[in-house]
Design a protein that fits this description.
Layout: H1 7-18, E1 24-29, E2 32-39, E3 42-53, H2 58-66, H3 68-74, E4 78-88, E5 91-98, E6 107-117, E7 123-132, E8 143-144, E9 146-157, E10 160-170, H4 177-206, E11 233-234, H5 246-259
Parallel strand pairs: 6-8
Antiparallel strand pairs: 1-2, 2-3, 3-10, 4-5, 5-6, 6-7, 7-9, 7-11, 9-10
Helix pairs in contact: 2-4
Length: 268
């Protein structure tokens, strides 16, 4: 059975984006840092990005990351998406299909998302992980990719926002890991650029919509069917030697952090 994120997961997400011990700085430019780190037992690196948006609030960015209707408008890589259902007021499951550069086949995901808003002066966080369900098998024409962990941490600085992003994904298929690791840290800044452009246009776009719903903020607006976690299974339910799970990754990093409390300075 799949497991929803709890307070420990959100605390570890903050640790991953804040601490640079064991990470390699790949890019530092225009208020944006891109870092990578290898993961024991896995060929694909973990990637994180820290950036400052000096003209976007964290509330607006939080809405953009959530709004499935707007995602279809601004994300040119989105081929299809479908909201499968709601687990509870802070967790949902969705299907997403994304394009890849030719001649690669597009990828798709079934993701369990969890979110936490700690208040106006605090932080807003999102975590997603791949899950499986018998009604949502891999589809023809797509390769089912795996997100071991993808997370966002938004921190308000008045009218500014610090965005931190971390991901550990396996695109599956025949892609050589060295190629994926080489291009991943270059694709990140493009994603940030697209996300910033989308956030700048969100308020104006949302004001034109007949349905002004924001169920991620107002649970009474939720119209999706209620689903049980027992219907979904974590992709990490395999022996440790066969799969480097996000939980094991986090435990390994956490264990190192207990021994190495010294942190490198961050730009943000």
């Amino acid at each position: 059975m799949a497991r929803i994120a709890d307070d420990t997961d959100f605390e570890m997400l903050k640790y991953l984006v804040d601490d640079n011990e064991g990470w390699t700085l790949e890019l530092s430019k225009a208020n944006t840092e891109v870092w990578t780190r290898p993961v024991d037992g896995c060929n694909f690196h973990m990637v994180k990005i820290n950036t400052l948006f000096d003209d976007i609030t964290s509330d607006t960015l939080f809405d953009v990351l959530h709004d499935p209707d707007y995602r279809r408008v601004w994300d040119t890589h989105m081929l299809a998406s479908e909201e499968i259902g709601i687990v509870n007021v802070n967790n949902d499951v969705g299907y997403y299909a994304m394009s890849c550069p030719p001649p690669l086949k597009p990828r798709d995901f079934v993701l369990l998302r969890s979110w936490l808003d700690t208040g106006p002066l605090g932080e807003q966080m999102l975590i997603s992980r791949s899950v499986t369900h018998h009604d949502w098998p891999p589809r023809k024409g797509y390769i089912r990719a795996t997100s071991h962990l993808t997370g966002f941490v938004l921190r308000s600085r008045g009218e500014k926002c610090i965005l931190s992003y971390v991901t550990h994904c396996d695109p599956q298929g025949a892609l050589p890991p060295w190629l994926v690791n080489k291009v991943t840290h270059t694709l990140g800044p493009r994603m940030i650029k697209d996300l910033k452009k989308a956030a700048l246009g969100y308020i104006a776009w949302k004001s034109t919509q007949e349905n002004y719903r924001k169920p991620w903020r107002f649970p009474e607006e939720m119209s999706l069917p209620r689903i049980s976690l027992s219907e979904f299974h974590s992709i990490d339910n395999k022996p440790a030697e066969e799969n480097a799970t996000s939980e094991n990754i986090i435990k390994n990093i956490n264990g190192k952090s207990n021994k190495e409390s010294k942190k490198k300075k961050r730009l943000f």
